[in-house]
Design goal:
Length: about 600
Amino acid sequence: MYVFFWPIRLGSMEESSTPKPGTHESGSEASGAQMAEMLDDYLCRIQAGELVDRHAFLEAHPELASLFDFVEKLEDLALVSSDDPVPPDASGASSIPTIGSSAVPPKSAAASVPSDASSSSISVAKPPRDFGNYEILSEVGRGGMGIVFRAKQKTLERVVAIKIIATSLASHEQVRRFHLEAQAAAKLRHPNIVSIHEVGELYGQHYLAMEFVGGPSLAERLQAGPLEVDEAAVLLSAIARAVDHFHSHGVLHRDLKPSNVLLDEAGTPHVADFGLAKFFESNDRTDTGVVAGTPSYMSPEQAYGRSADLGPASDVYSLGAILYELVTGRPPFRGENNLLTLLQVRDREAELPSRLNPKIPRDLELICLKCLEKSPDDRYQSAAGLAEDLEHYLRGESITAKAWGTTHRLWRWARREPALATRFAGVGLFYLVEFANFVRDAVDATFHITVTGVLAAWIIASFFLQRRLRPPTDHQPLSTQAAWCATDVLALSCVLAIAGGVTSPAVLAYPLLIVSAGLWSRVRLVWLMTTLTTVAYGVLVLQFYTTRQQVDFDTDYDRHVYFVLSLAICGCLTAYHVWRVRVLTQYYSRRR
């Protein structure tokens, strides 16, 4: 950074120290040239990325003491221009790679700090090894607002973790959240919460000194697969007690997730990272409509951006999401990108944990699903209530979470399987009308039996196609979805061919099939459904004019042209809407 102005300064100093013709070089002029040379060497070493001990340098060259303030200013500039990682410590343990790296973090460094999907974009100035009262030892992880280093506190001879963000690089909101984290965590004293030792600013960088936890995060532990169900219940009970502790101090975490839970050498969990914490009674400047948190673990009210509605039940939801992942190996919702995940959190029901892991007991599943209720009023009203139910489960006692009634179970199933539920509803409604006609002798028995057989085949095919899409994955197979679209068109066309073809008012189901294809959020499926419905309607038109059925129906062809145009327009509008949503999701993912 000072490449542009430092040579000019050095040149002026050297020029002033060079003897002019007819003069003799004085001792002070020679000393000035040497000082400039030593200072230039010092700054070049800093700019090259070396960790130069300023105090040791000044002890070796006391003649530079008068330039201390000037050197400190230049050193700040050098720190801002350098973002190289801190070298590995003496043990040879290298720093934990950022998310997305193929390298596996070493066990010795795993730890100490939660990682985040946004961590790879964090660029924080490298602190000198001699960082005030701390000796920086190694980098151990990167979070959403900065980098965490393992350090040694000189005065107390203890190892701590230091989170650092650079004032000159961080936004005002990041600095505010950084201090909010310190303010929130400093109030808390609990064996399962990472404690804060000190907060301050040095070399233009805000830092937070906190307890060092020497084991992996819960997210790293889950890389080996889900936990045993009782082990998961014990862990979450301890975490829930910690969450209840900061709730009792008026603090919401708002970003509970496995990577923010650290495990020490004994496997004891410690809740960390209060960067999104909020005080119950404070006038937090997080605006309504702003989504803050991690999509797979945030509550529906967070996904809607309703900050005013957040309370202890919001953190309880996140605890339920953690429990879900502990026993199944995956979070309850995980879409192709963050925005689709948010939509799932808002509108869908999670797959039953027992379907992903049959070993999960019914009581533990009920506890987990009670945490994941869409309405905050239906969840545990406190983290302590959740912890107590988990402890009841571990002791074999009855729990407060109860099985739902038939109506509630049906509603949850419909939200969990929307594609199958909508088909059941549509086919069921059509069958009720047909059955009513059969009862009042409007149709004969042959017609009734034939239609019943086609509808039954449609339902059975839909059921098996839905099974092909389980368990939910980030990328559901396009071939299965396309086969489902073709099955819908074929089944509906068969029913129409039996029930009057183009003369039946049920042809209006064709546009509905096009709209329903948009729920897959894939433009190609919308165009496929539009093409299939258009061809199927054309076949019915050909059947009508070929057989020349004697019915009271307008035989002019223009009505069919209008209907085909309406199918095309419906397909274009649906495809455009899906395309726009996908563009927005891609943009949102890049912004994250």
